């Protein structure tokens, strides 16, 4: 076919322009000429002009003045003009433009044109950019073409019908009968179109799906014909007969067989045949195998077939082609919840993929590896994961770190192992961990009382090597402050002791204090630790005193405040110092499974950055243990809370302007809420202590919205008043607490208090929620924090 | 399929086919961002990536990148085959196709694509049939006489 000379000349001219400016000049001249031509009456070069304009448009220049010309050209009787006109319509017009409506009539006429190539142009354009109105108008035409035309047109009409159904769902029923009859055609193009159409109809409408289940035997027959038949040169691709059609049929079978025993049985043999006979040396064979595997895993197949499918995936994992490995891991991820043991068999290969060069493959391998961690393989898996962490790309680091923490917490074989693992992560990727790792680790350490000596030695050594990882430094400072005496004693059973003098320790802390790498939070930790050491060391108390008084004039307000208060402790309240700075009590866990301050976060990508707020205030005569709390626990991060609207203020018993996170509770919500349909909202008890019970029920409102109802009840003998509930969620989740039904719980469960929390999770992060309950009973204040990891009715698979 | 883009190694778009309704501005933005993302990838990397909320399948043939955005349920491997089939069609039509052919005859590249894919799905699985249809349509365009009746007589006369 002879090329369009004017078009080619213009293209050459544009390409020879040496600068952007020159190119713009050429294009402006050309566009002016084109515009002039458009205004003139019909000349022979109309199609060339429009083609030129389309080229200019593809380069990125505005071409909207060509829209009307497209409309005119589509209506032309000449095929060359129609062809370019329709092309222009597909490129320049989209359904949002008004001009697109103008071509509806032309399309309608062309659909019944005597020449099939003109019909084809109209069908193509309608399927590409037809708006809902156009589709509604022209649907009967398409239906007619589906039934009575040659196969060239039928196959196009089928795909056009697919587009119509996607735009206007109700019209699906119109096409169902025609689609059914198309299945008996021999032409592959028509069959392919019919299968796509039926797939679309079944996906949208359950009734249609039920009806089309009867077509399963026919589909199986067609498929068998493709698989067993001899070599057909027309449709052969590397030895596979029409892989495109095979893949589409398999997909349709998947939809029809899902959750239906009878249909699944009917296709069992076929699937087994395809799975075993398809040649997997080339991509095209693997494409068919992949689709087969997806189908087998999604229908009610017999176990032998399932095993076969998983084995195919296992073979894929060993394939040299990276694409195939990636595909395999995606599929395995889908079934790791249901066929866990089968996937476990391939754990070795998956772990090897952690070392792959490609970032997407690494990501998949990481997800799968984390899902495969179990109590039996925790040690070896953790070794691999830690190796991975040290060399993994930056964007995966925080996900890997969080995943490791979760796995470590779930399956830690011993406390020492757990602490070691966390320390390892902090040294390797300390900058990417979530901020609440610090209080979690601190809590873990306090709980492992026999390991205090070991831990403080290790941390001291780590501190000497590197003070840039803030989380690590914070934990180290805290430990040194708390257990400095153990460090100085110089004996340790679990690890090689270091001969440390008091000066060394203070030097280390001072380095942290003075280093410009330390964040304000870290310096706060260091200062507090220094202060605590004043009761644990004997000789250098004066040095501590001088450090503290220097910081009394520090520019950083928080540090200054602390220093001034500590100074006061030295001077006026020296008699209280020992009591104030004594060893922290073990942080208690609130209830089995819900740990205070512990973060069992799912990968937290959107967690709020934790702002460190220093210990609020030291009122002149605070109770001793509260001071301890503020001094030590609060060094960590705190999340902002969402107080319930009806609650007056923070829980009673705390100083009025203490941030609600006094006590170091981090009310940060992690957690993903997997949206799952819950018809009767099941209730689960999330907290029970001292007779106060809190239950929770959830109801899914939309794809991302969830309503949680918290119900509190009181089974003690005395009334409870000033009951407040506060909740916190991850940053990307929106939280709205409705007003509670009341704030007092009469004794012996006479009445309950309910409060609704509306959550919206647009980014579909893992949802968790931390709820703080505070109330007063018999004149004293109580407060507790609950971590909610799982929402009733939702499975937490793999994490 | 949601869209298909062909672009050179310098990031110049050679063909863009959109099967979803998006404004010009949105299309430009998506093209720009996606092209940059793909050009930044190393040669041996995986052909599939997740970008925004789309599945992207791409393959490089000589100096041109062929890139498709498919839906969640679509089979990535068969999409690679579709891309390959399109390249084969271009090759057969132009005779050992190269980027310049697609630049200077871009409208024909579109016509061929429109005979192979319709509304984002493959319409004809036989290479021979696609090429035959293009040939016929080209003949029709060539003998741009006026009415189709005349063309039929002309063609029959020839034979």
From TrEMBL, chain A:
Is Transport set as a keyword in this record? yes
Q: Which Gene Ontology cellular-component terms appear in the entry?
A: AP-1 adaptor complex
Write out the annotated subcellular location.
Cytoplasmic vesicle membrane; Endomembrane system; Golgi apparatus
BP GO terms, sorted: intracellular protein transport; vesicle-mediated transport
What residue spans carry the Low complexity bias annotation? 645-662
In Pfam terms, one family for this protein is Alpha_adaptinC2
Annotated region (Disordered) at: 639-662
Q: Which UniProt keywords apply?
A: Cytoplasmic vesicle, Golgi apparatus, Membrane, Protein transport, Transport
Q: How does it sit in the membrane?
A: Peripheral membrane protein
Highest taxon listed in the record's lineage: Eukaryota
Ranges for domain GAE: 679-792
* SMART domains per the UniProt record, alphabetical: Alpha_adaptinC2
Query: What is the similarity comment for this entry?
Result: Belongs to the adaptor complexes large subunit family.
What name does this protein carry? AP-1 complex subunit gamma
Q: Which organism is it from?
A: Sparus aurata (Gilthead sea bream)
Q: Which gene encodes it?
A: AP1G2
Automatic annotation (TrEMBL), chain B:
InterPro entries per the UniProt record, alphabetical: AP1_sigma, AP_complex_ssu, AP_mu_sigma_su, Clathrin_sm-chain_CS, Longin-like_dom_sf
CDD domains documented for this protein: AP1_sigma
Q: Name one GO cellular component term.
A: clathrin-coated pit
Membrane topology, record value: Peripheral membrane protein
Q: Which GO terms describe its biological process?
A: intracellular protein transport
PROSITE patterns per UniProt? CLAT_ADAPTOR_S
From the Swiss-Prot or TrEMBL record, state where the protein is found.
Cytoplasmic vesicle membrane; Golgi apparatus; Membrane, Clathrin-coated pit
Q: PANTHER family, from UniProt?
A: ADAPTOR COMPLEXES SMALL SUBUNIT FAMILY
Quaternary structure?
A: Adaptor protein complex 1 (AP-1) is a heterotetramer composed of two large adaptins (gamma-type subunit AP1G1 and beta-type subunit AP1B1), a medium adaptin (mu-type subunit AP1M1 or AP1M2) and a small adaptin (sigma-type subunit AP1S1 or AP1S2 or AP1S3). Binds to MUC1.
Q: What is the name attached to this protein's record?
A: AP complex subunit sigma
Organism of derivation: Sparus aurata (Gilthead sea bream)
């Amino acid at each position: 076919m002879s090329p369009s000379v004017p078009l080619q000349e213009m293209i050459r001219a544009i390409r020879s322009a040496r600068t952007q400016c020159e190119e713009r000049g050429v294009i402006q001249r050309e566009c002016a000429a084109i515009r002039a031509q458009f205004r003139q009456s019909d000349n022979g070069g109309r199609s060339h002009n429009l083609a030129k304009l389309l080229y200019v448009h593809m380069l990125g220049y505005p071409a909207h003045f060509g829209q009307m010309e497209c409309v005119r050209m589509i209506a032309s009787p000449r095929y060359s003009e129609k062809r370019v006109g329709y092309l222009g319509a597909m490129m320049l017009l989209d359904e949002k433009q008004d001009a697109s409506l103008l071509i509806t009539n032309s399309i309608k006429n062309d659909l019944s044109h005597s020449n099939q190539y003109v019909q084809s142009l109209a069908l193509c354009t309608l399927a590409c950019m037809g708006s809902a109105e156009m589709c509604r108008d022209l649907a009967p035409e398409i239906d007619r073409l589906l039934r009575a035309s040659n196969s060239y047109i039928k196959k196009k009409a089928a795909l056009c019908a697919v587009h119509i159904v996607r735009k206007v769902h109700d019209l699906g029923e119109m096409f169902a009968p025609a689609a059914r009859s198309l299945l008996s055609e021999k032409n592959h193009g028509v069959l392919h179109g019919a299968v796509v159409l039926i797939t679309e109809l079944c996906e949208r409408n359950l009734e249609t799906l039920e009806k089309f289940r009867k077509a399963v035997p026919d589909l199986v027959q067609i498929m068998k014909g493709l698989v067993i038949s001899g070599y057909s040169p027309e449709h052969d691709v590397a030895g596979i007969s029409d892989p495109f059609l095979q893949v589409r049929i398999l997909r349709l079978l998947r939809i029809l067989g899902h959750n239906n025993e009878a249909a699944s049985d009917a296709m069992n043999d076929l699937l087994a045949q395809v799975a075993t006979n398809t040649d997997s040396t080339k991509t095209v064979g693997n494409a068919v195998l992949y689709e087969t595997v997806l189908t087998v895993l999604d229908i009610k197949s017999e176990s032998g077939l399932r095993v076969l499918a998983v084995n195919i995936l296992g073979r894929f994992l060993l394939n040299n082609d990276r694409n195939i490995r990636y595909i395999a891991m995606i599929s395995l991820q889908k079934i790791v919840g249901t066929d866990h043991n089968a996937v476990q068999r391939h754990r070795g290969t998956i772990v090897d993929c952690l070392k792959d060069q490609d970032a997407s493959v690494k990501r998949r391998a990481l997800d799968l590896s984390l899902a495969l961690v179990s109590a039996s393989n925790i040690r070896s898996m953790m070794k691999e994961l830690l190796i991975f962490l040290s060399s993994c790309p930056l964007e995966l680091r925080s996900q890997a770190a969080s995943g490791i923490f979760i796995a470590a917490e779930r399956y830690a074989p011993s406390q020492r192992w757990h602490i070691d693992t966390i320390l390892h992560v902090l040294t390797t990727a300390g900058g990417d961990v979530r901020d609440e790792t610090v209080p979690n680790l601190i809590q873990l350490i306090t709980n492992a009382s026999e390991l205090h000596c070991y831990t403080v030695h290790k941390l001291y050594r780590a501190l000497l090597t590197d003070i840039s990882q803030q989380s690590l430094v914070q934990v180290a400072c805290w430990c040194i402050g708390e257990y400095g005496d153990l460090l100085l004693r110089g004996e340790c059973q679990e690890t090689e002791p270091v001969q440390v003098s008091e000066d060394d320790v203070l030097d280390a802390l001072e380095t942290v204090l003075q280093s410009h790498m330390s964040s304000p939070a870290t310096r706060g930790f260091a200062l507090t630790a220094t202060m605590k050491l004043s009761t644990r060391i004997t000789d250098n108390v004066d040095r501590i005193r001088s450090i503290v008084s220097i910081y009394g004039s520090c520019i950083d307000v928080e540090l200054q405040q602390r220093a001034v208060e500590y100074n006061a402790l030295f001077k006026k309240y020296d008699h209280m110092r020992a009591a104030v700075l004594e060893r922290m009590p073990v942080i208690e866990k609130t209830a089995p499974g819900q740990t205070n301050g512990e973060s069992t976060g799912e990968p937290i990508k959107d967690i709020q950055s934790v702002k460190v707020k220093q210990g609020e205030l030291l009122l002149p005569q605070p109770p001793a243990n509260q001071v301890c709390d503020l001094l030590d626990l609060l060094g960590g991060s705190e999340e902002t809370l969402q107080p319930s609207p009806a609650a007056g203020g923070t829980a009673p018993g705390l100083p009025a302007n203490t941030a609600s996170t006094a006590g170091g509770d981090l009310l940060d919500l992690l957690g993903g809420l997997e949206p799952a349909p819950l018809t009767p909202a099941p209730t689960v008890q999330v907290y029970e202590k001292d007779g106060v019970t809190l239950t929770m029920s959830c109801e899914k409102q939309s794809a991302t919205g969830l309503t949680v109802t918290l119900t509190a009840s009181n089974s003690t003998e005395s009334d409870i008043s000033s009951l407040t509930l506060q909740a916190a969620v991850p940053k990307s989740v929106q939280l709205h607490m409705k007003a509670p039904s009341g704030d007092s719980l009469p004794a012996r469960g006479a009445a309950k208090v309910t409060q609704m929390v509306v959550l919206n999770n647009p980014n579909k992060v893992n949802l968790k929620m931390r709820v703080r309950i505070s109330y007063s009973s018999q004149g004293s204040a109580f407060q507790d924090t609950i971590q909610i990891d799982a929402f009733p009715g939702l499975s937490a698979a793999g994490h | 399929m949601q869209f298909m883009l062909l672009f050179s190694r310098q990031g110049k778009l050679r063909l863009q086919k959109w099967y979803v309704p998006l404004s010009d501005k949105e299309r430009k933005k998506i093209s720009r961002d996606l092209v940059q993302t793909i050009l930044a990838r190393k040669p041996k990397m995986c052909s599939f990536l997740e970008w925004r909320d789309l599945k992207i399948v791409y393959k490089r043939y000589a100096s041109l990148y062929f890139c498709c955005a498919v839906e969640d349920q679509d089979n990535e491997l068969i999409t690679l085959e579709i891309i390959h089939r399109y390249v084969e069609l271009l090759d057969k039509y132009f005779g050992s196709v190269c980027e310049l052919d697609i630049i200077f005859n871009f409208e024909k590249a579109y016509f061929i694509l429109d005979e192979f894919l319709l509304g984002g799905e493959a319409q004809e699985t036989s290479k021979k049939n696609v090429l035959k249809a293009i040939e016929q349509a080209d003949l029709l365009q060539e003998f741009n006489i006026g009415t189709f009746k005349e063309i039929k007589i002309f063609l029959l006369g020839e034979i």
